[in-house]
What does this fold into?
Amino acid sequence: MNLFVEDINPGGSKTIVFLHGWPLSHKQFEYQFNVLPAMGYRCIGIDWRGFGNSDKPMSGYTFNRLADDIRAVVGTLQLNNFTLVGHSTGGAIAIRYMSRHNGFGVAKLVLIDAAAPTGFTAVTANSFLKETLNDRPKMMQNVIDGFFFQYITKPFSEWFLQLGLQAASWSTAAIIITLRDEQLYLDLPKINAPTLIVHGIHDKVIPFTQAEELNEKIRNSQLVPFQYSGHGLFWEEREKFNQLLAEFV
It folds into this structure.
């Protein structure tokens, strides 16, 4: 099973590893990758199994397996002393990586609109699941409609839609079930790296209250609210986020 990894500016002084959200790919971080490497950072984007340009096996869509996949990449690239950044479900995978692999190689952790300690409610999950299995493009459009607080252009919306449709339908569905059934409460006390939590106050996908809960339960963490963002602060307030990330790293 092959995972797709984009390694930008491999000679950079500090390394940042990015984990995308469901059902997207590492390309969602385009507006980080066109700024941070130019500032001297090494940026590594990983497509999880089933998404983006990675292989799309039928199984392995639990937080444990996805965290193990990240560990395999870290080992292969011999990464050390890096900052791990996870958005939404990528934040949940990052949290599981920290607890399951004792934060191997991670100096700092950044959680963006993280789907933790819980993901989707049963009602939300079952609705997404039904749509995924019957009209996945429509499901993806519904995701986009609730994703951003700020105005997005039609071409941007279409680009975002295509990122989601690169995934396999079976992996898209499997992650919905994982987000419905798995929780991360027990992982939080095991996080041992300084943690930056950023969350849009208008987030309709993962409520801001969950960021406050993470801040409470992860020691050595700080929470920075984003006042003009929904679930996509990495794009909606990209200048503020990129600056914050560069300073934190």
